[in-house]
């Protein structure tokens, strides 16, 4: 089997670093090079042998000129770059839209929230350049809670949460909407034919809250909360009070 080049976006994040470790340990029979991209410097914090050559690019996923270089000759992209949900009162909605989806104002929206976002601009630019560079595969990491609307919910499952909320509201606000619209952009591009005759294939992952070695938001935040208040709140409500997606 011929080997290919893979790209990992958001390479400095803890999820990406766990992925890189797994690739290094298990993918030597099909991966010949791993290209890493992030706006932050890459500091390896997990122990694993560097069995596959890696190249790190300090760049923004919305930078099309950088993407053209990085994606050249690539076979698969693991798209993990995103603006994570900020568990504070001071989250910047504009950052969600820049990092998660697009820099253009979305149709029917006049708010500056739809300009410059990490969850949309980065995804839109990446997918467009993948098609231009004839990169055939993308694994997109979304969020299982991204498109849940504001309201009461019982019996949630991934199978019934495929589209945008009919009431236009997102329980996770700009973060949720930007992540969902980024996923939707990839879904809509799937199957598009490229100039070499190949088509874009995708795998869409929708995890719930991610945590693990290297994670710096959820678990540390919960520990700080518990240390300050002496405990963590218990959300009640019986069967209707379960706040975890049915897997």
From TrEMBL:
<comment type="similarity">
    <text>Belongs to the 3-beta-HSD family.</text>
</comment>
<dbReference type="GO" id="GO:0016616">
    <property type="term" value="F:oxidoreductase activity, acting on the CH-OH group of donors, NAD or NADP as acceptor"/>
</dbReference>
<dbReference type="InterPro" id="IPR036291">
    <property type="entry name" value="NAD(P)-bd_dom_sf"/>
</dbReference>
<dbReference type="InterPro" id="IPR002225">
    <property type="entry name" value="3Beta_OHSteriod_DH/Estase"/>
</dbReference>
<dbReference type="Pfam" id="PF01073">
    <property type="entry name" value="3Beta_HSD"/>
</dbReference>
<dbReference type="GO" id="GO:0006694">
    <property type="term" value="P:steroid biosynthetic process"/>
</dbReference>
<keyword id="KW-0560">Oxidoreductase</keyword>
<dbReference type="InterPro" id="IPR050177">
    <property type="entry name" value="Lipid_A_modif_metabolic_enz"/>
</dbReference>
<protein>
    <submittedName>
        <fullName>3-beta hydroxysteroid dehydrogenase/isomerase domain-containing protein</fullName>
    </submittedName>
</protein>
<feature type="domain" description="3-beta hydroxysteroid dehydrogenase/isomerase">
    <location>
        <begin position="7"/>
        <end position="225"/>
    </location>
</feature>
């Amino acid at each position: 089997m011929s080997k290919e080049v893979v790209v990992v976006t958001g390479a400095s994040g803890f999820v990406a670093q766990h992925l890189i470790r797994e690739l290094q340990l298990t993918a030597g029979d099909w991966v010949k090079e791993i290209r890493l991209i992030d706006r932050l410097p890459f500091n390896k914090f997990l122990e694993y042998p560097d069995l596959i050559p890696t190249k790190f690019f300090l760049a923004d996923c919305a930078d099309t000129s950088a993407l053209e270089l990085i994606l050249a000759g690539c076979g698969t992209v693991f798209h993990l770059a995103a603006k994570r949900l900020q568990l504070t009162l001071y989250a910047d909605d504009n950052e969600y839209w820049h990092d998660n989806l697009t820099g253009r104002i979305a149709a029917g929206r006049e708010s500056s929230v739809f300009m410059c976002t990490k969850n949309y601009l980065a995804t839109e630019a990446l997918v467009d350049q993948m098609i231009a560079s004839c990169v055939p595969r993308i694994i997109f990491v979304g969020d299982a809670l991204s498109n849940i609307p504001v309201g009461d919910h019982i019996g949630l499952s991934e199978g019934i949460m495929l589209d945008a909320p009919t009431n236009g509201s997102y329980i996770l606000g700009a973060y949720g909407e930007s992540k969902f619209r980024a996923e939707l952009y990839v879904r809509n591009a799937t199957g598009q034919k490229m100039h070499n005759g190949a088509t874009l294939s995708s795998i869409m992952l929708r995890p719930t809250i991610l945590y693990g070695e290297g994670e710096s938001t959820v678990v540390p935040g919960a520990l700080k909360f518990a240390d300050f208040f002496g405990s963590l709140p218990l959300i009640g409500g019986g069967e209707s009070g379960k706040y975890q997606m049915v897997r």
